[in-house]
User: What shape does this take?
Amino acid sequence: MKLFPAIDIIEGCAVRLVKGDYAQKTVYSTNPVAVAKSFAEAGATYLHLVDLEGAKDGSTPNLKIIGEIIKESGLLVEVGGGIRSEKTIQKYLDSGVFRVILGTAAVNNPEFLKEMVLKYGERIAVGVDFKDGKVAVKGWTELSEESCFEFCEKLEKIGVKTIICTDISKDGLLAGTNLALYKEMSGKFNMDIVASGGVTTLEDVARLQKMGLYGAILGKALYTGNIDLKQAIDLTKGERL
Assistant: This one.
């Protein structure tokens, strides 16, 4: 199983939110480049990066610092947050991002998603962020009418290879992840599933790996010291792409 340490960026800082609430923000570092380099030094291969400002308004205010992170850390970086046009996709790919994550655009504009998957293939992933069974959009500030499983069925038919699945109710609480959900999803869908939200302990990591999931995102638990990244990577054998 692949591990994706996470950096969420607001105004050039590495932050974490609770349940996606922008009002519940903790700044962990004013130097996300240094944070990314520390992940690389611990043995990470990948980085999950979200532009939280972009997620709300569809802009790319942190594009420059994301480019610096890629250059300085040497990590394979996937980026999400407000990617709603091919122009933005191209900006990120040109900056060295290996995979972009579509969220709001994938929900609201399935034809656009089809076109991008056809053109860019596995370099397009989709974020399946949900709350109360419904898919959330616009930086988790709004709920769509689409259910999680209905949405995933559509993604599979379109040909999406990788989904990043986040139970918003678990995010940032350090109270464990939704193991039952990921087990059900891995049985239903033939896509690479990345578990996100509430991965709190090495035991969570071990149980997700036992399910045969493609990957897991490690967020707040890294910043609080609940999970040691090197130990987690050793546990999952640090498989490469």
